[in-house]
Amino acid sequence: DALAELQRLLATTRLLTLTGVGGTGKTRLALELAGQVLDDYPDGVWLVELAPLTDSAQVAQIALTSIGILDTAGMTPTAALIDVLRNKRCLLILDNCEHVLDACAKLVDTVLHGCQNITFLTTSREVMGIAGEQGWRVPSLSNPQTDRNQTTDELLRFEAIQLFVQRARHVASTFALTQDNCAAVQKICQRLDGIPLAIELAAARVKAMTPGEIEQHLSHRFRLLTGGSRTALPRQQTLQALIDWSYRLLTESEQRLFCRLSVFSGGWSVTAAEGICSGDGVETVDILSLMLRLVDKSLVLIDDSGARTRYRFLETVRQFAEERLSDSGNSSQLRDRHASYFVAYGRQFSTEIVDPAQDSIAILTMAAPELNNVRRALDWSTENVQCDRVCDLIEHFAFLFVARSVREEPQPWAEAMLKQPEDRVNTHQRVRLIQLLQPMYHHTDQMEKIAWAHETLSIIGQTLNDPALILGFEAGNIRDAIVRKDKAAALRHYAKWCTVASTDASIGDRERTIMEHSVRGDIALLDRDFNAFRREAQWLYQDFHVRLGKMQTSAMARQFGYALIWNGELEAARAKLRESLVDNYALGDKHAVAACLNAFGALANAQHDPIRCATLLGASEAIVEAMHTRLMRWDRDYIASTLIELRSRLTAEALHAAWSAGRAMTLEKAVAYALERPGGGTRA
Prior knowledge:
Shape: elongated
Radius of gyration: 32 Å
Structural class: mainly alpha
Largest sheet: 5 strands, parallel
Distance between the termini: 43 Å
């Protein structure tokens, strides 16, 4: 595909420049292209290899020598080159121009003006910037996604996998891609960003290591990936030398910013780069122009596919830059600034996401790409026992973790803080950590940890005589009693909650009212008083709709939808479930989408359509399994009871077929199926 596209471009321009990070195969591609177009140039295709050149003044002379001209008859090399080429139709390939770019640009521009039938094909880390130049970035090899299980035959359709297997067989003739090693090979190619040279160097290690061992050692890739072909240029024999070649061509300011940008994980915005990387020789106003120069030199990539333009490194380049930053002694300072920046960003995010006047979907879409940076900030803050910062990051980005269906992911960071001694993490910080952990424990049914958290908070609350802690403890007890369907215990703990709340000035009337309606609704559900449950669900939905953003409102819309189903108001229920599903799908919360599919299954069941119900439940199950998580206990209890009913209404074969059909649906197809009206296909 690349050759076909380049052949078309070469026919429309006189200067085609192939750019890309080192090791992507620019030279190889240029030579393959030259072979394709050889017949189009009756006076030949000539290769001018510039990599060994150390003096830019010799560019024209090297070009002359490459085409076989040794005697310039007293003319300057440039004049002699024009004299030789003036009446010829040929293609000159200038390979590896980046270190003599200005000299190459001057020579090419002069020759193009003096020779009407000459075409240049050049390879470089950046374009020359000449009028009429056509730039083409050489992409990395195609890679499979690591979050999908694929067969070996499916994996071998990807270029990166093909190259690894081919090069591995050069050093171990019996090597084959198998079910045992394919996952490791897939991760190797992914972590090496599909860069051909890096993959070749990794594959060469197969003679001494298994793919799994190679993948484990990639954290030290610059020591691992050495020993390329002896006939290759020295900088192409090790991965580190290859990137170092580009790094040494940067100006001092470019080098400083290049290293500092390694503090990011998964990319960054201009605003973030300005907030973290400026100072000490890099002015804020210069950040954007410096970054664009790094883009021009193929060291930084632009990603404009999202809500705003972002920038990123290939991971191999990022690791090189990180090592240079560490060598400079500024790594700790930059990591600290990075963490502080994202605490401030999170504070703004957590405020805006619950504001009904804000566009929750736009806010979440903007924040979603920063999840890897949040993780990196948590790593650093935990490593340095900065407990308040860890708590701030978990609390402020809670909705982001929920929306990306990884709500329990912060658990290890919080628990690592709890293991610290008292002189490093005090009692109030421990309380905050436990309160952050409680919803994660409930989500994953970690019963022993739930009991431990309640007991610990109770002891601390009584010891400190802290009403807020006691209220939190009693609220947790109410939730636990409802899960256990223990009405008496729920009412007893609610009474205690009310007593403490009446003496705590920090608890306002609205909080007391919300708790009252929530408990009433839960009790009504335990009593199967669906009219009362509908009344409380409606009040909560309307209150949330006025005061909070879509993430909170969508959950209440789903709950209200269930209440309407159980009261026979099926059209009204469809509208509320549609609202919840559409919002959660737009927010990207796959976990909530799966829960909404269950709710639509309940609607189908109420409409006496067991096939549709089973299909929706199957689709929900597949989504949850793909995320390696599970639904909340309430949803799981509903599915279990519904399955009993479905088995009484369908044959085993019919139930299995419908369930399997749902499981086979993509997320998009499952959502569309849920939103269709049964039979007519009209959207709900």
